[in-house]
Design a protein that fits this description.
Length: 203
């Protein structure tokens, strides 16, 4: 998993509450277990019409927001069914951080397991970022080490995060990576077990 330390990126405002995982990545894109390529299905019904043509008025299709790395959203982002494809699609599209007033629990947990940083800010802070992102300067800075978000105008907002999750994100550790940190101890245990209980090695 890619480590997250500090992100300087264009922010895109999506002032909608209760965006569910089927809106983030519709069910027809869930046939694959590969992460690559899912970005094409991100917010598909928002981004494209019935004929598959881009809707020019949708924010992610507007030229000033192309290449955005931070999504600023409304309350209860990622609600609905559990699907790990949702953070995969956001990251494949280039979004590495989502800022909202709250997240659905399963989506929030999935973000940390995949390297997407979910940041919870107060409603007035999210609204301030939304308004600034609608202006001419869209660049924000998300600093995980300092636990701050700096708006285009330089306003600084602090956010809370579980210390254990923060450390894993900074080091780029998912569940597998965390386990592999103990690889030496695991190998030593398996070597001792092979000597003490050789019949298990033949199983």
């Amino acid at each position: 998993m890619k480590a997250f330390t500090k992100l300087d990126a264009r922010a895109v405002p999506l002032p909608l509450a209760n965006i569910d995982t089927d809106q983030i990545i519709p069910k027809q894109f869930l046939k694959t277990v590969e992460r690559e390529g899912l970005g094409r299905g991100l917010f598909y019904d928002f981004r494209f019409d019935a004929e598959g043509r881009e809707k020019p008025d949708f924010v992610l299709n507007r030229p000033e927001y192309k290449g955005a790395g931070v999504l600023i959203a409304g309350d209860n982002f990622g609600c609905g069914s559990s699907r790990e494809h949702a953070p995969w699609a956001l990251m494949d599209f280039g979004i590495d951080c989502v800022i909202a007033t709250s997240f659905a629990d399963i989506f929030y947990n999935n973000c940390f397991q995949n390297g997407l940083l979910p940041v919870v800010l107060k409603a007035e802070e999210v609204q301030a970022l939304m308004e600034e992102a609608k202006g001419g300067n869209h660049l924000v800075t998300v600093d995980l080490e300092a636990q701050t978000v700096v708006s285009p105008s330089g306003r600084r907002f602090a956010f809370e995060i579980d210390p254990t999750r923060k450390e894993k994100m900074l080091k780029g550790l998912d569940a597998i990576g965390e386990t592999l940190q103990a690889a030496g101890s695991i190998d030593a245990y398996e070597s001792k077990r092979a000597i003490a209980q050789p019949w298990l090695e033949r199983a």
